[in-house]
Amino acid sequence: MTQKPAKKKQLIIYGNGHMAKMVYQFVKHDFEVLAFTVDESCMEATELCGLPIIPFDGVEKHFSPELCYMLIAVGFVEMNGVRERKHLEAKSKGFNFVNYVHSSVVWHDSLTIGENNVILDHASIHPYTSIGNGNFISSNSNIGHGCFIGDNNWINAGVSVAGETSIENNVFLGVNSAVGHGLAVKDKTFVGACTQINRDTELGSVYLSESGEKHRLGSEAFLRFSAGMQSQPSNRDNS
């Protein structure tokens, strides 16, 4: 006898922007997405990706919280504060939440996770790490062993967090940034792209590295110059 496949959980996505559309393309393979929802004041259309957009104020009248789950898919606006508030508001309406974890992520049995998290493809999360609620962890990021990831953090693509590190709450880690071993990244810390953190941060602080500077040569001339430098004989003594 052939066993019927398990029925997918029914899901409503909060959001109607780029983040919501991106998350939808991932989660639609694992969940039956019924609709999007957003505050009526933010509605610019009534449909997104072929699905209805329902005003958040009365979403529970359209979809039963007992049957449908929700996932908040908005960006890091207000240091992730909007995502945090909408999570709590939806919970007060009676909705439960899912986590989306891409199938490429190795999920060790020593990991713990809360709810309303989005973890995209090829994120590496090492054993004995704890993840709270409402976090966004993007593609190709690395979270070391024994880390604590609090609530409502935004961890961008290519971020590397060394082991035994604490990322508290409402933190933003920019693309390809890095955090050293055993550190504490305090609440509402903003770390810019390609920035290395090698000491504990301060509450609500901003850390930025200098951006790349334009070279005086054009790209083709620079490559010719680089090739010429590499072909020159070494100045080291041959003794």
Fold and architecture overview:
By secondary structure, the chain is α/β, with parallel strands linked by helices. The protein has two domains: about 90 residues, Rossmann fold, CATH 3.40.50; about 110 residues, UDP N-Acetylglucosamine Acyltransferase, domain 1, CATH 2.160.10.10. It has four helices and 23 strands. A hairpin with a 2-residue loop joins β3 and β4. The radius of gyration is 22 Å and the shape is globular. About 35% of the residues are buried. The mean pLDDT is about 95.
Keywords:
239 residues; alpha/beta; Rossmann fold; UDP N-Acetylglucosamine Acyltransferase, domain 1; 2 domains; 6-stranded mixed β-sheet
Please outline the helices and strands.
Elements: E1 10-14, H1 18-27, E2 32-38, E3 47-48, E4 51-55, H2 59-62, E5 68-72, H3 77-92, E6 96-97, E7 100-101, E8 112-113, E9 118-119, E10 124-125, E11 130-131, E12 136-137, E13 142-143, E14 148-149, E15 154-155, E16 160-161, E17 166-167, E18 172-173, E19 178-179, E20 184-185, E21 190-191, E22 196-197, E23 206-207, H4 219-231
Parallel strand pairs: 1-2, 1-5, 2-4, 5-6, 7-9, 8-11, 9-12, 10-13, 11-14, 12-15, 13-16, 14-17, 15-18, 16-19, 17-20, 18-21, 19-22, 21-23
Antiparallel strand pairs: 3-4
